[in-house]
């Protein structure tokens, strides 16, 4: 039998250190909301492969759809010999995306690729170069996506220079006293100091920042951005790569604010464990690039499209959104109770939207000084106890929960119990 230790040594010798491993646990199999490692130990999964397994690992309907597609064909390249599963998935996403305007969808492979394409489409549609993104936002690891990203360490460090004509506004942050007004003022400052509004193609944001620390864009802020974009002919791009497909208790997080973006980037959970992403947008905007201007060899792979259609079926037929909301209320209540508990005065904030929830750890509640070592120690101790949970945040001091939305409340409670015990253990060692 392989051991985690032996495999970790082989990994260190064979794989560059730039890929930093969150939990040194080698997966052997997974089912629903649980993972078993190569040593036969069972773990509760609060990470879901980073917000991918919203309907759980190996959902039978996803596996059946994938098997059927494997029997038919795997890859022809959509732009060489197209196929119906791609078109059907595009049709369904066009129908589901918020906003009354007719939509079109391009299907791709990764989140970063969706972001790259959203920027290309926005520039082609507006004939303008500049893009505004936000501090502590994360949009992926390709060069344009990195340029948009507002978190240096570890994503951008050593990889510049980045694309010109990208400007970062300040994201609202109620916990650290950045108001909606201040955030909007930071955009006006960009128009005054960096680039005129008439040269800005798009403003891009995550409705809830994922890697940046689960900072929720207030709904009034989303609506103000929509108004500001309309005033200046700027496109609004929602990066729903982490927030999409029920993660915040709606299919798309922007539905909470009733704002219809011009373009939406999706990835992660739509594939049910298979690599797929997409840009959904207003048809006239999506049609701006010239024929041949978009595409790639594997974009919209048939097996991934079949998985995506099955995920949508499951979401509709199995009441995933309703289950997500119930789970979210339960987890929010338990995390909220921990924050009130005097033993946990290292909890500075509990925040999120629906079941997309996180706990920010600080050295002291008054100073709000971030405690990244504590967050690191908690995730490590949780793994030792059988819970996979990961951190995030501009200061790496936020522990986030991204469990499958179909997880039972009993399993969620077992996982939260482990999290609580790990917190107590980590606190006692500081
Ligand atoms: C909000 C957001 N955008 C973009 C990405 C990049 O997606 P990918 O890792 O599939 O390229 C991520 C990945 O975590 C993300 O959370």
Based on the model shown, name its key terms.
14 helices, 40% helix, four-stranded mixed β-sheet, binds pyridoxal-5'-phosphate, globular, seven-stranded mixed β-sheet
Description:
The protein is of the alpha/beta class. The protein is built from 14 helices and 15 strands. The strands form 3 sheets. A 7-stranded mixed sheet has the order 4-10-9-8-7-5-6, with helices on both faces. The protein has a 4-stranded mixed sheet with strand order 1-2-3-13. Helix 4 (84-96) packs across helix 11. Pyridoxal-5'-phosphate (PLP) is lined by residues 50, 110-112, 115, 138-140, 206, 210-211, 239, 241-242, 267.
* Strand line-up of the largest beta sheet: 4-10-9-8-7-5-6
Biggest β-sheet strands, sense, barrel: 7 strands, mixed
Give the C-alpha Rg. Answer: 21 Å
First and last CA, distance: 36 Å
Task: List the uncertain runs.
Answer: none
Strand pairing plus helix content: what structural class?
A: alpha/beta
Helix share bin: 25-40%
Let me know the number of strands: 15
Mean pLDDT across residues = 97
Q: Beta fraction of the residues?
A: 15-25%
Bound ligands: pyridoxal-5'-phosphate
Order of helices and strands: HEEEHHHEHEHHEHEHEEEHHHEEHEEEH
Overall 3D form: globular
Number of helices: 14
Quick synopsis:
The protein has 430 residues and is an alpha/beta fold. It has helices at 4-14, 48-51, 60-72, 84-96, 111-126, 143-148, 152-156, 180-193, 219-232, 283-286, 302-317, 320-340, 372-385, 409-428; strands at 27-31, 34-37, 42-45, 103-108, 130-134, 166-169, 200-205, 235-239, 263-266, 277-282, 347-353, 356-361, 387-388, 390-392, 398-401.
């Amino acid at each position: 039998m392989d051991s985690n230790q032996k495999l970790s040594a082989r990994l260190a010798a064979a794989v560059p250190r730039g890929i930093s491993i969150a939990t040194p646990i080698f997966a052997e199999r997974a089912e629903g909301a649980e993972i078993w490692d190569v040593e036969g130990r069972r773990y509760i999964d609060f990470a879901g492969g980073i917000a991918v397994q919203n309907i759980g690992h190996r959902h039978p309907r996803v596996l059946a759809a994938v098997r059927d597609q494997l029997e038919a064909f795997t890859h022809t390249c959509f732009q060489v010999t197209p196929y119906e599963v791609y078109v059907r998935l595009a049709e369904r996403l066009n129908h589901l995306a918020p906003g009354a305007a007719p939509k079109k969808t391009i299907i791709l492979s990764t989140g970063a690729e969706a972001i790259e394409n959203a920027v290309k489409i926005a520039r082609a549609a507006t004939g303008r170069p500049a893009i505004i993104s936000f501090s502590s936002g994360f949009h992926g690891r390709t060069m344009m996506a990195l340029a948009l990203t507002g978190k240096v360490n570890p994503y951008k460090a050593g990889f510049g220079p980045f694309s010109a004509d990208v400007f970062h506004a300040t994201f609202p942050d109620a916990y650290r006293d950045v108001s909606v007004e201040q955030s909007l003022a930071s955009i006006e400052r960009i128009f005054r100091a960096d680039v005129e509004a008439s040269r800005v193609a798009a403003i891009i944001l995550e409705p809830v920042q994922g890697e940046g620390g689960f900072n929720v864009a207030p709904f009034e802020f989303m609506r103000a951005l929509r108004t500001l974009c309309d005033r200046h002919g700027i496109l609004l791009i929602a990066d729903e790569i982490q927030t999409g497909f029920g993660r915040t208790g709606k299919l798309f997080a922007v539905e909470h604010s009733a704002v219809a973006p011009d373009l939406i980037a999706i990835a992660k959970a739509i594939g049910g464990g298979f690599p797929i992403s997409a840009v959904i947008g207003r048809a006239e905007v999506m049609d701006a690039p010239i024929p041949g201007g978009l595409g790639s060899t594997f974009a919209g792979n048939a097996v991934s499209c079949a998985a995506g259609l099955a995920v949508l079926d499951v979401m509709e037929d199995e009441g995933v959104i309703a289950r997500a909301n119930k789970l979210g209320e339960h987890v929010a209540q338990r995390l909220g109770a921990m924050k009130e508990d005097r033993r946990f005065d290292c909890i500075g904030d509990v925040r999120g939207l629906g079941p997309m929830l996180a706990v920010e750890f600080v050295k002291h509640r008054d100073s709000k000084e971030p405690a990244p070592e504590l967050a690191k120690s908690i995730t490590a101790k949780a793994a030792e106890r059988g819970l996979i949970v990961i951190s995030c945040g501009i200061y790496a001091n936020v522990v986030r929960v991204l469990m499958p939305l179909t997880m039972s409340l009993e399993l969620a409670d077992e996982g939260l119990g482990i999290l609580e015990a790990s917190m107590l253990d980590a606190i006692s060692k500081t």
